[in-house]
């Protein structure tokens, strides 16, 4: 029996896709950076089926590529071009196994779409706080495997902080059952943290127990015009203190980000009469009813006096709140329409964000005349999407050819400042070389040792995350 | 040059303790369960000295035992009796390197006493929330290595959730520098999470960047008399929702715990006129001034109506608050004075705590007539110290001889319920066999593979955490 026959007998022939047209959407990377090839795309319907498929592939020596919603931004979920791999899609593992409002937990299979989990939590009077641009199509297994970030990290943590338990199929097909609802468990090494952020190189996440929180009853959102990112830092600290640490989003937006949004994205408009150099989208939320509005108004009144705020609008309705968020979320889309973009997903200590933006801006403008810096993002996490838009009227391809050179300039500064070259998007395939360049030898060595310990034959998502031996 | 000469040349002869009297306090386990022996106790004064000592020991093939405040409850920090090991104490690594109230971070060396970090945070207008009984003498490196829990986990997480970055000396003497202040960093495997909870078996934590939080401005504490643990669960859920998730402690106390405290511990008194079966110590705190008192009063008013609360006292002063806490903290001390205690540090899903207490109580009472169950602890984390006090007038030694049998009864039920046999105290030496008994073979195998990958010669804290091959 060939491997494909074996796999068909496990998942049924309808769930083994071999025709090019059927495979198409599984092989193309989100931004079009990679287009892989696969022996087959397999869609198991249960953890046991995943385990059986992995065991069969392992015995046949066939590389495996786990895939969730295929929304990753670093190519971690697409196979290489050689066509030797089997893609294992989790999309049929889409049952919510339990929602428990007493425990504040939700147990879900890996293929559940993030938005469906947010909805299930909401239906139970709770909040599942993970929130990011792709939430309508990304799947929780991918979120976990990449330790996804998003807009609520400041208050609720990264994905790894939202996971209580995991179930994982190991590279040899064994099932690791860590699917527990425990808030404290000090019985040995933190295996589940290894799988989170490993981008499927150590095993395939098949299910998880997630933390829920009380659903907010009071949400206050302000768009604040500010003189510079330093002011944003001070506002953030004041807001955390005044609100009982209820700042659930703190997004920095540069003038150019707003301008591009207004120019290219329908429905985006500037709520202020005058132009301001920077904006801060500040959102407070709490399940305690009342009080945040006053806290926010007091905060802003003091900020005007101290010159930290130039102008501000508070959302008076849910629609107005969404309009503020749209202004923030429109930036990547607007950049795309404005021409080529070179992207960086960097983090430094929160207090160093202003310095990082200043230094990197000077450096890239010196290196490429006319380049337009669009630095925005999750100020509260020290995470900036330091994106570059091509000079006006420049050639798009010529600009994009500078990707590596620009990356090196920005990443050199970020790393010198103790920062991260991939704050929330991961390494995947896109940043493996960059990782090898910047990580200390001892880090790379430890990663290789772990990879060998879990996957001695290197069959699980090969070529991702762990730099190959030189 | 002998190893000891070498080590003396690294740290200075005054920091190499070989006389029995000098070594004494480093060799005795907190509860007197173990008394180890050591070639020497070495006290390095810097990370570089730790690295050099480890390198020298590794080259000489000498086992090493990292030690912080030596307050662990499972023998993880004391050497074995064979006298072949070197104890490496972190006590001289006691500098606070930085406190940053803008970043909300504190950078400390491993030997800093926990209470000194709490104080440093407070001095900067911030909170470092880790809090536990031994805080006056335990050291942060030990807290990190054991992933310590304590009373604030419900709101702020376990120690691993409070750590942004780590510096670790690996078993071969290399320094792993993960000492970063990043709130997002997805560049490869979560190495720092492996070191946390590994109890020094994968390396020695030498420094850490810790998360700070806004300092509470409003603290409200209530002692609530309740009919049973189920009522506590409902109160917890309501309190989380009503307070904006500001419940920072939720401690369950049984009638017998209060009685023993009143009997044995000076200053502990029962604040109620009548006797009640159970009590809940509920604390809300927030940096947002005002509002929690009203929330708590409303909550209790509703609870009286619904029969969830039988009586309640709200702390009217800081002293009264401390008296409530003293009532809770007195339980272990009071148990000690009442006779022999057999202890369990177990966790189940929060919603299953009442069932766990019921089932375990029936089982141990059946197995040993007259045994007195004192089940108390961190209800909000699902973590119960299910402790047994000897029957009245029983022989202490005969009772303690039942330790293993009682453990088996309790742990069987807890594991069957998907729980943990060591919620916050870790494995150390005390629970290695218990771990081997209860963990799945695949878990133990993965732990051994990791241990071999990091410490192939098994020199770093041997005999702890990882069960030996049979």
UniProtKB/TrEMBL annotation, chains A, B:
Cofactor dependence: FAD
One of the Pfam families matching this protein, by short name: FAD-oxidase_C
One GO BP annotation of this record: respiratory electron transport chain
Keywords tagged on the record: FAD, Flavoprotein
Domain of life: Bacteria
Domain FAD-binding PCMH-type span(s) in chain numbering: 34-215
GO MF annotation, one: FAD binding
Presence of keyword Transit peptide: no
PANTHER family: BLL6224 PROTEIN, D-2-HYDROXYGLUTARATE DEHYDROGENASE, MITOCHONDRIAL
Sequence similarity: Belongs to the FAD-binding oxidoreductase/transferase type 4 family.
Protein name: Hydroxyacid dehydrogenase
Organism the protein comes from: Paramagnetospirillum marisnigri
Phylogenetic placement of the source organism: Bacteria, Pseudomonadati, Pseudomonadota, Alphaproteobacteria, Rhodospirillales
